[in-house]
Amino acid sequence: SSAHLLQLVNDILDLSAIEAGKQHLDIETFNISEIIADCSPIISSAANRKSVTFNIKYDENVPLFTADRRAVKQILLNILSNAINFTLEEGTVSLEVTATNGSHLIEVIDTGVGIPLDKIKSLTDPFTRVEGNPYITHEGTGLGLAIVKSLVELHDGNLNISSTLGEGTTVSVSLPIINNIDQAAPSSF
What we know:
The structure is a single chain. The protein has helices at 2-19, 32-49, 69-85, 117-120, 144-154, and strands at residues 27-30, 53-58, 65-68, 92-100, 103-110, 158-164, 168-176. It is α+β, with helices and mostly antiparallel strands. Strands 2-4-5-7-6 form a five-stranded mixed sheet. Strands 1-3 form a two-stranded antiparallel ribbon. A hairpin with a 3-residue loop joins strand 6 and strand 7 (168-176). It is globular. Residues 4-9 and 132-138 have low confidence and may be disordered.
């Protein structure tokens, strides 16, 4: 209970800082494989507890990211945690990282319960939770995707969510490829 409460407080503080324009970005250049290596043990453990298969597929030729490392890690952890949380036992969650049209594309694809089309738009609103089955509870505060959206937008990126009820959800994050750190987004807003 205390860990859950601490996570809630941290999420609220993160979202408040972003909305107040006080979120500081430490822009650096890094390989996405480093972030994936940091996130994998946490996500694999959660997947194993639910008997969910977790797959990672990324193109080793993807250009280096120029972004805030902590923010990209938080984006990945939030969308992967959601995917695991809403995927039933024996399901699959896949992380795919590619580069296309001048952008890095991070996709998390799950075989979970899916989201009603009319609820997708509100998923990124703070404290919004979409429960497909009222008899099944899922951990979470309803802040994860709001934080993801804000962090993605701070990097001049885009967040897209598509879903089919009973089949699963795909969350796509597109971040611009920046070849020169001087072209990166400002370090604070």
